[in-house]
Write a structure and sequence with these properties.
By secondary structure, this protein is mainly α. The protein is 65% helix and 0% strand. The termini are far apart. 4% of the residues are buried.
């Protein structure tokens, strides 16, 4: 009885609240491997969510820095060129 319950749990019948399916017989090792793989899948989903969050934050930071670069570029354009003679006198 316990083995059939583990098999139903491993194939997703119990967690999906579905009608039990004929799963055949799984060994305890097979059922544990399936449960382990499901846990790995959930861990990967969490990791992907975290990476998506980091990507979103990086894009926000990129946009902020892009605006700062644009503002600095405009500020530099308004400054006089130190290589040019402001009086127009050329001593040569």
């Amino acid at each position: 009885m316990l083995e059939s319950w583990e098999a139903a749990l491993a194939d997703g019948s119990i967690t999906a609240l579905a009608c039990p399916r004929k799963t055949g017989t799984l060994t305890r090792d097979q059922a544990q491997e399936i449960i382990h793989m499901q846990q790995q899948h959930r861990d990967k989903d969490r990791y992907i969510t975290e990476l998506e969050h980091q990507l979103s934050q990086a894009r926000i930071e990129r946009d902020r820095l892009s605006k700062a670069v644009d503002a600095l570029g405009k500020a530099i354009k308004t400054m006089p060129d130190p290589c040019e003679d402001p009086d127009g006198d050329n001593p040569t």
